[in-house]
User: What shape does this take?
Amino acid sequence: MAKAKMMTGCRASAEGAKAAEVEVICSFPIRPYTAIMMELAKMVADGELNAEFVHGEGEHGQLSVVLGACAAGARAFTGSSGVGVTYAMEIYSPMAGGRYPAQMAIADRTLDPPGDFGSEHTDAMCTRDQGWLLGWACSPQEVYDNTLIYYRIGEDHRVMLPQMVCQEGYFISHIPDMVTLGERSQVKEFLPPYRPISPLSLTHPVSHGPQIRPDQGAPMDAQRAETFLTVPKVIEEATADFNRIFGRKYDPFVEKYKLGDAEIAFFIMGAHANTCRASVDRLRKKGVKVGMARLRWVRPWPTHQLAEALGHVKAIGVVETSTSYGGAMRGGNLIHELRANLYDLDDRPLVTSFMAGLGGETIWPADFDYMAKILSEMVKEKKTRRYVYWIGM
Amino acid sequence: MAKELPGYGIIKVPKDREVPFGAVTPAPVCVQNMFQTSNWRIVRPVKDDEKCTRCLICYLSCPDACWVYKEEEDVMEWINDFCKGCQICIQECPSGALTAEAELDFPDGVVRLEKPF
Amino acid sequence: MQAFDYKYQQLDPIKSFKRVPGPEQYVPGHRTCAGCGPALNYRLVAKAAGKDTIFIGPTGCMYVANASYLCTPYAVSWIHAQITNAGAVASGIEAAFKIAMRKGRHAGPFPNIIVMAGDGGSVDIGLQALSGLMYRGHKVLFICYDNESYANTGVQTSPMTPYGAHTTFTPPGKAIPEGKTLFPKNAPQLVIGGHPAVKYVATTTIAHPLDLMNKVRKALSQPGPTFMHMLCPCPKGWKFDEKLTREMARLAVETGMWSLYEWENGTYKFTNVPKKYKPVSEYMGQQGRFAHLKPEHIAKMQAFVDEKIKQVKQAVAVAAPVPTARQKA
Assistant: This one.
């Protein structure tokens, strides 16, 4: 029976990759995800992990190496942070459209300018239109778990999509918490080996990615869109299997915390949900009927599940730790999708957003008190006064 | 209580517009019949077997592999379907065995495709 | 790391034209221009490499014109790469095959992994990935098919475009009479100069088919990264009649614009060194891309080539031309 150990999110990510027996790893240093690669380098050097550890020449090179490795039939792993994630932007669509189910571990980081090592979701959120599976963990344990779950979902023949497993830079990547690693037998039962569909082979020669005509483009796009209609079912199956084998209790799409009778709710993603949960408890003691919905998947966005979880709430505060300058609500990007999500409901909740945690700042319990106060006022007045509040400014 | 949200709909790609999964196509075996480039040419090379020394330079000069040496008959064979009429072979032939003749002079000249690609 | 037998292929040299392998791995039915130099190069390389080969094709003429509209002329496995990353994608494929063999998933042989990149995809936008590949020591042959421009997008200048060439980004005009004012990079030297893991570097042209195929085979038989620089004249870009594609390559060697050599273990071996070099004007005069140049520009090019010839002569102990197959004078 595996014991729980203290470890950082970076270490948990490396342990997950090791458990998944990744075969080609491509590294390049950038804070704060670098420690993931340092851990894996040691594992390979010590002979604990039989893998090719390739020193990429940059993040763009990292993703390219991983694309090639995946096309040739290897389970491939890489990662990055901040501007590294955006430097590799060219490769995301070829990987998703080419159906190469490699995994990228992202310890998120504020984008330049100027240099800021602090956490923000903006880096990975920028890529959300490229066709990858994308979601955030809120603890090192969830990072480890997601590493395995996302490979299982991504490599499923009904899916065949690359995945981004995201965690907050510093807050999760560098602060240790208790993690229970899986036994080899558990991992083997949950995660089958990668079976590519038409790899680059000497015996069955294939061409990957010939040029197409414009009229062949729409069917290609349709094929990719169609896959996302199937992904939620695969997510449900995989999560249920994972819960059963490893003894966890993940809701596949949304962590619903004290939402049942909530009048106001926080809609949040990632590590700051831990502070949020504690704040919900504290506010509840004061009699505030508040709850939290923590989003576990950005792509595919769980539209129906969120409507079910939040439809009855009267006012929702989206806690945004990313920016979307000039966007419809002039704040972040989660609010756009959540509002669109809830638009068709008969009794739409009021939705506003709070820019918090930007630049890697802590979101304090007092901030959640403030947000709850705003949401309560919205419920009283029965209207949204503002689309966006900047916490602390 | 929330009313039913609309669904995502279904996507139906017509059969004649289907594309292979992930844009992966099997490799052709000998020729790529989808692209018969023979209708590009306005001249074709005509060979004189007596002048031909079977040096194989035409064979190694053609970007479209349109010259093949038939070992048993000991002759060079020209492949009609793909010759673009670039005339490299005619230019390079050391014994003057190849001459360029207008495509329209031939009864099977100017291969017409059933439908344009 | 203990030594593992990756079953690298050892390809024997081809002794004569009659012994050139018959099967085409780059089959007819592609939309390259009539008389395309890079296409002929592809055909010869693919023949030399044989069927246990995987090609990486970064964006360029040898992608767009070859693998058009979901059809492909490659009888062996092939994958499209971005123009930026061919070296990196090849690295990933090589690493995957290495781990597959160590885990017993692939019995062998180790594939010939060959990048077919244009000059831009090699030493301009693709330089970073090329350098990473060469540095890391992957067993990959990186081929730069040099048509001296970004041809596929309509002939724009690249770092391999010669001085004085007219391209759509270096058009001659009143203010800039020669068109292109910059001299090109030296691609093989970029690789040789700074990458200790590189095993073999060679230059060749499409007018020397046996030389080309044998150098490819020699490169593929090395246990590490190799680089080849092929001169592939482009009738459309260089503006000459398409039947002269091979002639242009020959003239390039005869004027000293291009030299044929191999580099291995720190030593150079030159071949086909002309006893007497023809003037560059004979080469440039036949190409429309140089038609706007004045005598002083040609002289500048001649001076540049003279310097190159001097270096060749210094490297070659005895300047004796090696005869190739019988060719028209």
Chain A has a mean pLDDT of 97. Residues 254-390 of chain A form a domain with the Rossmann fold fold (CATH 3.40.50.920).
